[in-house]
DNA sequence: TCAAGCATATGCAATAATGCATGCCATGGA
DNA sequence: TCCATGGCATGCATTATTGCATATGCTTGA
């Protein structure tokens, strides 16, 4: 009873995906290959792992057991690749970084540019996402994050502190400056229901006009003159068509961190990027606070 | 950078074996296949894993790291196979048992026979070894052992208590019975340097004549009249051409246990064998003690 | 110094694995 | 009812993997 490890991995993918097609895409093979591998494992173990139903392959209890252990194997493989990557002393190959979408442009653009010029042999992959990637699973080597702490089993370095304030289109700003009684129309992000706390009491009329689930959309709306947005300084300052409005004194915001898995942290490429990044961020600290 | 799990397993085998041929035998493939898989992994990871030397492949530090994690994966796979085997409710297929060489004949013969007759659908593999097999790595499903305790992470059941005594060829026994002054020539096992403790003081002349590293050889020597051997009762009694001699009163010896890995323990085949075995051993308890 | 033994490379033919095209079946909505 | 959709099975051509035979290089001992 000798079973290919790749076949076990295939069982894992099929248990996760539920259908041959989904597992196949996950593994980067044709779905017929998945079907044949499953058949092979079942023959080798002498056990039925899946019920073939009209809407997909339904795992038996045994298949779930197999998947559970295959997931452990996957974790070991992840750790392995992290370890190899972490002891990589070369400044060639690919470095994958991830950062919040909006940090890429004004804040990180110069850093990315400098890195590419300094290390032209390194191919840089940038993954701009709103939901953080899993560094343990090597979805990226390195992440720039806006948060209070690096996650568990991650190494982190705080780059700069941040504050946020209120920004709006110039004509909205004029309006507010001239008439303290004019209503302040807030453009709120995501789960924030209410008017920001700590607003300047000399403007008494606040209301939440629109809520957005996306920061790009908020900036666009603010540029279009739809209202006032509470955004981090670097965003408000670098977005054309926005000016700061005094209705909200600067407030503390989450810091910017560079984080990586502790296994990957010592890698040459990560270290190189880190150096350029920290130097640049500390030199431009003023961008992020009042 | 997507690496086949089977290739990682190949790295592990090569780190363990040191040569292509050894790794190939371990994996059951041709050594050329091993060489090509290694080349493929190195290309995929962009790292040199082995130095090609005249006397084999010497692993780099990176290869050792890979092997370390691949060993973890192997452990997960072992656990997986144990789990699947443990929940196997069928009384077909193969059951692998292991026992000390000399226990197979007189003590377990009838049990094995009965099991085969009761469950003709089960193919029984018997591995008679002097060094215990690794049940965690599934070298056997079930072991009968002579020891004080089952190992860690193993389930065990004590079958019978044992005693040992002195046995010799009939003419040697006659000699001893007639002349208490005659020298008692002991045939010692392995590390035992001295005459057994607790010998009957009415025979004052003891000496160690020969030491053996093998129990079969001791029995043969005793049969041939070369001296007196201290052996468990079941062995002395069932070896033709040996009779008990009174120079050594019965002494306690290690018990006989049936052990299996806790994952495998509940399997139908293991349970079936256990039932037949315990019944038989308890019925024949008298064979093992004075 | 030479030959034997062990180890790794390489070329080629056989085999196994894979992907693609096609067909089948169940489901759900027009 | 019919058709579109999503999912699985099968046959076949293609590709990748493997094993075998052979060649080469290094070490060791007579």
What is the element layout, followed by pairings?
The structure is a homodimer of 290-residue chains.
Chain A: H1 5-17, H2 20-27, H3 31-45, E1 50-53, E2 56-59, H4 61-86, E3 93-100, H5 101-118, E4 122-129, E5 142-147, E6 154-168, H6 170-178, E7 184-189, E8 206-212, H7 215-223, E9 228-232, H8 233-238, E10 243-245, E11 251-261, H9 268-283
Parallel strand pairs in A: 3-4, 3-5, 7-8, 7-9
Antiparallel strand pairs in A: 1-2, 5-11, 6-9, 6-10, 6-11
The structure holds a DNA duplex (30 and 30 nucleotides).
What features would you describe in this structure?
- The structure is a homodimer of 290-residue chains.
- The first copy, chain A, is α/β, with parallel strands linked by helices and 290 residues long.
- The first copy, chain A, has nine helices and eleven strands.
- In chain A, helix 1 crosses helix 2, helix 1 packs across helix 3 and helix 2 packs across helix 3.
- Chain A is elongated, with a radius of gyration of 25 Å.
- Chains A and B meet through helix 1 and helix 4 of A and helix 1 and helix 4 of B.
- The structure holds a DNA duplex (30 and 30 nucleotides).
């Amino acid at each position: 009873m000798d079973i290919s490890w790749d076949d076990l991995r295939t069982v894992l993918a099929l248990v996760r995906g539920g259908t041959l097609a989904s597992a196949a895409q996950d593994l980067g093979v044709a779905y017929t290959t998945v079907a044949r591998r499953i058949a092979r494992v079942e023959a080798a173990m002498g056990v039925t792992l899946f019920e073939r139903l009209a809407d997909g392959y339904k795992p038996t209890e045994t298949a779930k057991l197999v998947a559970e252990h295959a997931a452990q194997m996957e974790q070991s493989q992840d750790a392995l690749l992290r370890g190899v990557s972490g002891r990589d002393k070369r400044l060639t190959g690919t470095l994958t970084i991830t950062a919040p979408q909006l940090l890429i442009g004004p804040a990180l653009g110069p850093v990315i540019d400098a890195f590419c010029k300094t290390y032209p042999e390194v191919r840089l992959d940038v993954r701009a996402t709103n939901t953080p990637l899993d560094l343990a699973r090597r979805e990226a080597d390195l992440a720039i994050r806006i948060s209070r702490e690096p996650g568990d089993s991650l190494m982190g370095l705080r780059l700069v502190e941040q504050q946020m304030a209120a920004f709006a289109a110039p004509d909205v700003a004029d309006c507010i400056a001239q008439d303290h009684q004019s209503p302040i129309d807030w453009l709120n992000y995501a789960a924030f229901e209410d008017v920001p706390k700590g607003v300047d009491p000399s403007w008494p009329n606040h209301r939440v006009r629109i809520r957005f689930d996306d920061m790009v959309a908020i900036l666009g709306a603010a540029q279009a003159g739809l209202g006032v947005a509470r955004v981090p300084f670097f965003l408000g300052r670098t977005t054309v068509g926005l000016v700061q409005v005094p209705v909200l004194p600067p407030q503390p915001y989450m810091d910017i961190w560079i984080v990586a898995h502790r296994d990957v942290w010592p890698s040459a490429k990560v270290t190189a990027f880190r150096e350029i990044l920290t130097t640049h961020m500390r030199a431009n600290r003023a961008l992020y606070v009042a």
